[in-house]
Specification:
Elements: H1 3-16, H2 22-47, H3 52-59, H4 63-71, H5 78-87
Length: 97
């Protein structure tokens, strides 16, 4: 999923927002937050000039796992996201609000 796709999805969901229950809104908001993290990781990988293969080597994860995470076809664990961030010399920060 790209930033553009996420923004388009967010805009569409805001238009539909009045038809959603609070529980449905929360689920969607959580998905949007997750995909923002995934997009940030992909953007950082590309900014560093790393291929998925090189990141796979650095993180000791299969390249196919990285492909699935970046495409949005696989939800992953916080641990895997942290591993990817660390392989790029970054930290993944989570906070409760």
């Amino acid at each position: 999923m790209t930033n553009s796709q996420l923004n388009q999805m967010t805009t569409t969901l805001k238009k539909l927002n009045r038809d959603l229950t609070p529980k449905e809104r929360k689920i969607i908001d959580n998905e949007i937050r997750y995909y923002r993290i995934v997009i940030a990781l992909k953007d950082e990988r590309q900014k560093l000039g790393l291929t998925q293969e090189k990141l796979a080597q650095r993180s000791h994860l299969p390249r196919t796992t990285i492909t699935k995470i970046e495409s949005g076809s696989r939800n992953t664990t916080i641990q895997t996201l942290m591993t990817l961030a660390q392989a790029m010399g970054k930290n993944l920060e989570l906070r409760l609000t």
